[in-house]
Each structure stands twice: as structure tokens, then as C-alpha cells.
Amino acid sequence: MIDKRVASLTKAVASIRPGDVVMIGGFGSAGIPYGLIDALAQTGVGGLTVISNNAGAGEEGISALLRCGQVARVICSYPRTPGSIWFERRYEAGEVELEVVPQGTLAERIRAAGSGIGGFFTRTGYGTKLAEGKETRIIDGHGYVFEKPLHADIALIRAEAADRWGNLRYHATARNFNPVMATAARHTIVEARMVLDEPMEPEGVVTPGIFVDAVTQYEVRP
Amino acid sequence: MIDKRVASLTKAVASIRPGDVVMIGGFGSAGIPYGLIDALAQTGVGGLTVISNNAGAGEEGISALLRCGQVARVICSYPRTPGSIWFERRYEAGEVELEVVPQGTLAERIRAAGSGIGGFFTRTGYGTKLAEGKETRIIDGHGYVFEKPLHADIALIRAEAADRWGNLRYHATARNFNPVMATAARHTIVEARMVLDEPMEPEGVVTPGIFVDAVTQYEVRP
Amino acid sequence: MNRLSDDDVARRLAQDIPDRAYVNLGIGMPNKVARFVPEGREVMYQTENGLLGVGPAPAEGEADPELIDASKKLVTTIPGSSFFDHTTSFSMMRGGHLDIAVLGAYQVAENGDLANWATLDESHPPAVGGAMDLVVGVPRIYVIMRHVNRDGSPKVLRRCTYPLTGPGVVSRVYTDLAVLDVTDNGFRLVDLAPGNTLEDVQAVTEARILS
Amino acid sequence: MNRLSDDDVARRLAQDIPDRAYVNLGIGMPNKVARFVPEGREVMYQTENGLLGVGPAPAEGEADPELIDASKKLVTTIPGSSFFDHTTSFSMMRGGHLDIAVLGAYQVAENGDLANWATLDESHPPAVGGAMDLVVGVPRIYVIMRHVNRDGSPKVLRRCTYPLTGPGVVSRVYTDLAVLDVTDNGFRLVDLAPGNTLEDVQAVTEARILS
Prior knowledge:
Chains C, D: Keywords: Transferase. The complex is a heterotetramer, with 2 copies of chain A (about 220 residues) and 2 copies of chain C (about 210 residues). Chain A is α/β, with parallel strands linked by helices and about 220 residues long. Chain A has helices spanning about 10, 35-45, 60-65, 85-90, 105-115, 180, and strands at about 20-25, 50, 70-75, 95-100, 115-120, 135-140, 140-145, 150-160, 170, 185-195, 215. In chain A, strands 1, 2, 3, 4, 8, 9, 10 and 11 form an 8-stranded mixed beta sheet that branches. Chain C has a 10-stranded mixed beta sheet with strand order 4-3-2-1-5-8-10-11-12-13, with helices on both faces. A 3-stranded mixed beta sheet of chain C has the order 7-6-9, with no helix packed on it. In chain C, helix 2 packs across helix 3 (about 130-135). Chains in contact: A-B, A-C, A-D, B-C, B-D. The interface of A and D includes residues 31 and 87 of A.
């Protein structure tokens, strides 16, 4: 029987290993899997590479992982926000590496990993500092940069609802990076506000369960 | 005011010009915009390049365009089916050119066009006849083929429902190529089984209206 | 020589579809496999035209003409099904998310090469569909086919002579005579159809079969 | 010299947002534009975190904490809105489907170069967000900014000195002193803030302004 439900956040994150590459969904405070991140912070597992749009704000979420010294590297589009105190502290102390990726290129590199694409050309970043050292090509008169897929060991995903098959749907702008990240990791872990007893309506599924490995409930909204 | 509704199939296809590249949604008989294709057949506009998964069956749909001699070129993954009599007749008479593209590469090339991607590497087709003459590259020990975006002048799309903003949703496996083709043409024309008086629920939209130019009603299901 | 019926070959292959597998079944013989998977295993079948969780044919009068599989047959949904578009469908395939694809073949070679989309007869237009995407993206490619052609010529070969669908992609071959694994050293016998010997099978096989 | 208020610059730019336009508004001054678009024009605003059809701030007590724009402000939906994920959002941008993006800037150059994501101060970590995707994908890039820095140094330049967001991407610049088009020959004056002359504006502009 297919049943991807696990009993607790703690069990859900138990498979994360030191040095893992971890994708974390969310944009601003919407769609961040706070429950899973807290559980990961409690494990103390370190040396992580975190791939996310932001690098945390305040004391919660990715900030908690940075505060606990679990993050060796951050790949994101926008690390510096008014609340990104823990990221800035670790970065300025040289304790965390940073790779800044344009937001759309970040999403597309993640999609490439999830979709078996070996790399792609995008105009984004051509002629800028972020293209330095990268392969470029002129296509139909425009400059393009070659970008590579971005794979992960683990994806931590926030959904509105999940069923036992791992089918997911999302709420409003909490969708953001979650669906694409769910496709790009070896092991995709979901916290859902609701874990349904019944199967989701097939037409309403946004992330088909094939992309999901574990589902647990975490009711709190930010 | 944004109002993409047009009064008839005939008006909807009036902008199609001789020599246009026309994407046509559908797989098997599901999701084919039969109404729009019939209207296009009646215009007699010729020299078309048709991009679709199949090359028509029986006397309807793409077969009608082939029968009427309007098609100069077909780009598809699976032209030969039990009913593809008109395609075979035109092909064997040398009246229509054919480019066969693996189905996933077809979808991905269309997506690249709609998403501003200049090209991508896929393992699909590597080491086969369909990769002959194409750029290849070894990435992490696997062979990849470089594939280019596939743009169109016109996309003919079948949807279950549409609103005046051009938002679309689909029914069952009639979704198939329709959402991605809607993104890749200069001008996207939709026949919807229902044209709604009210806006679609934002969470249930599959194709956001920004990708759509014209919407008309055609109630008949195959 | 004892030959299994197509149904019995499908039944044999079905034993190797584990519980919780995500599986794509090609058109023809591969499509028979679903019906023989042992009870108690929950298997999710994907059809590339946008459905994960393909159910059986609809009951009389309940058909939805827009709910079909890749062979254009009418199907149904099951609990856990989801609909999606073609890009998502091929992300599943190409991205390595399916576990098994079962495909028919014209020819299979001992180096794992598969030929199942075109012959050397160029009088017909070629058609490839999703086969090339499946073979590069799905980790286990199971071929199901008759062991020899109608004219007795071999289909299990040293090298394919027809245009390839993909090089080195086949994991295992199920025929009416035997089950063969593709290994680094070529074909290795897994199973014989009852009543046959390896020598019987080797006699109608161009490639060498290791025991 | 007469300087328009930020609101008045936004009001001026808003006149150039036509009915039925699809528009992305950057954080800060660009975000003010929506409120000044003349009545009777239906404009769809996109926010890159997954909403087309961004509505005004929610009424007291009706906020949804998971319904925010790219600046993390609480927003609402409007009739015709749709939600989608980040890949679809950037397909809209990168694929050329939006009509106009309104962005802030540190510097704009007469060749259309834009610098709005990093300065030469490397003590802070860099942050780029979606700016580089917008400038390559949206056909009309409108910059809205103050004409000079607080210390009086020019922002409308011959060449940018800060790291570029994109080369040759700006269509038009709206400042508290003037509206300038980027042409093949450099900046060309479109409008002056009331009470100023071209000479006044040229005096605080490094690049040459054609009349």
C-alpha cells in the first residue's frame, strides 16, 4: 500500500544527514516549512547546504539553522532582508558560503534537476557579474548564459493539504518554490496544514504524489 | 477593460495568415480544438506549419487541414496512427514535410519557447537517428542532445472553461499539450466548452490569462 | 519448444512489479501487465498524456471521452490519481521519478540497446512518441515481446540492426521462452518458460545467453 | 529647481500604463504606481511570488498571511486573478509575456544599462532577487527614481559604475526632474517637471540629454 504519512516532524526529518543539500520552500514568510525546519534545528545535523529564495529572517526558519551553526553554504537569490541578522552574522564571520542566483534562474535550475534537463541557456544575467566564468552563447542576436541543474538530497516543502499518496495542493502565494523543489530532491518531505483522510480530487492536485516521499501534519500558519 | 471573448470561431481564427506556424493542442482525440480547426479549414489559409503531437486521424481535426492542402509541414512525435490517412497520403505524395520529435522533447522545446529559454540539453534521443546533426555534450558521464525552442505564430487550444481574462482550466486528459502551447505562440486562441460569466477561482486556474489572446465558446466534446 | 501465451508472459513480468511502484506501460503487450499484478500491491500507472493512477476501463455508460490513456483507450481514475500537463508528465519520466517502464521491442541487443520505433522499411513515415524519453529517464526498462519474429528470425541480438530507441537502456527482457537480464557481460538467464532448456532458447537467439 | 514628490513621479509614470497591460512593479517607489493609474484602465499586476492580478491591501481583519507580494506586503486578489508557482511566474517574465516592468535604480546609463542590485560596497552580501530575470524578459523596462543621489551625485550617467543588472535594457526613465527615453543616440527628453528647463536638468545629469 502507498502511505507516505509519517507520525511526527521529528520522524520526518530523521533521514537528513550531515552535509546534505537541502532545498527549503517559501518566499517571505509564506510557504516556509517552519515545522520541519524547527525539527531539523533540533537534530543539530550540520554542514548543510541550504537552497532557498531567502536566507531566513528573525529567529525562525532558516535563521534558526544559521543560529545553530548547521549551515555551511547558502544558495539563494535574496539573502539580505531587514530580518536576516543570523545570515549576515555568519556570512560576515566567514562561517557560511554564499552563491547568489537570479530568482528565475534559481527556479529554472531546480526545475532542470527535477526534469532531467542537463542544462539550459538563459538571457538572465548575461553581461553581468553573475555570469562571470560561465559559458555564454549568442542565440538569434541575444547573449545567453549556460546554467546547470541544481539537485538536492532533501526538499522541505510546505503544503496546504496532502493525502496518503503524497498528492499536494497549496494556498495562495505559499505555493512559490514548493512545487518545483518537490521534484528536485532524492527525498522530499512535506509538512501539510491538513493531511486528508480521503484522496485529493485528481483535477485539483498541484504536485502529484510521485514527487513526494513523506508527509506529516503541521497545522500552524505563519 | 480586459475582455478576450470573441463572438465566433470564425472571428477567432481570422488573424491566421498563410505560412503561419500553428500549434494545435490535443492527444488522441482528447483536448483537440476541433471547432477552431474546422474554422481554419474553412478559411483555406495555406502553407501552414502544424506543430502537434499527432498528425490527425479520420476526416476531422488536423486531417481536415491536410485534406484541404493547407499544411506544408508537420512537426510532431507520432504522425502515423490507424486513422492518419490524410497525413500519409500527403506525405507519400511529397506534399508535406515531416519533422519527428520525441514527445517529451516536443513538450520541452515548446516550453522553452514560452519561457524564454534559448535551448537545453536532454538525454532523450542521444545515440539515435533523431540526434543526427545535432550538437551533443557529455554531462556527468551521460550523453545529451542540444534542443532548441519551438516558437509559433498561433496556438489553437482546447479548454474546459475560460473567463473573460483568458484564465483556463482543463478536463481530465484533455489537458495534455494545451497549457504549454498556450505559452509559446505570439497569438493564442482558445475554444472553451464553457465561457464563464464570472471570474475563475484563482486557485483553480491552470493557464493564467496572460498567455491567452482570444477565447470563444465551442461546447461539443469529441 | 514450449511457448508462453502473451498473457502468461505478462503474468510473469507482473510478479516483478513491486508494491508502491510507479510504472509506465507501453502500448500493446506491455499494457496487459497491469491486470496480472498480484493482489495487495498498490501500483500507480502513469500515462504520458497526463494521468498518474490509471484505472481500469470504465463501466458501460460511464465512459468519459476525454479520459484516455496513451493508446487512446478509455480509462478511469483511482484513489490517489492526479491529472497534469505534458511538461509535468515528461518531467516525471525524464527526471527519473518513475520506477519501471515496460515496453515492447522489435529488437534488443546484449549491450542493452533497444529498437522499438522504426524498422529499415522507409516507405512509411517514422513515429517515435514518448519511447525515447522513457528509456533515458526511467531507471528500470523492462522489455516484453515474443522471442522471435513470425518468420523465425531472432529479436534477441548481438547488435540491433534497426534504428535505436536508446543505447544501453534495457534492464531485463521477458519473452515467451525466457527471462533475460542485461549485464555488463551480455544476457544472463533468469528464468526459462516451463519445459524448455537453455539450449532450446539459445538455438533461436542470436546473442549468447550466459547461465 | 522644482522637484516632483515621489507620488507625483509615480503619478506621471502611471499615465503611461495602458489599459489591459500586464505589469510587474518592483519594491519601493515602483510599487506606488498602481494607485495612480487612471480610472477605467484594467491593469493586471504580477508579483513574482505567484500571483497575477494583485489587489490592494486587505481590509482590517481580512488579511491572509499567505497572500503577499514580492515586498512581503499583505495583498488581495481581484476578479481575474490566478495563483501559480515560481517556474510559471518566471516563464511569464522570461518568456516575454509581461508588457511593462517598473523598477528602481541606483544608476541608469545612456546605453540603457541598468544597475539596481549591488553597489561597490562589498561589506554586505549581494542580493539580486528577480531583477535580472525581469530586465531580459519584459519588453518595456521603466525606471523610476530620484534624479540624483542624496549627496547630489548623478544617477543618470554615460556609463554605470555599479555592477549591472542588465545591459541595454532600459526603455524610459522617470525622475523627479524629467522623463527620458533611451534611444540609439542616448537619452532624449520626453517631459520636464513643471518649472524646470532642460539646462537645469542637464546640469545635474552626467549623460547628455537630447532634446
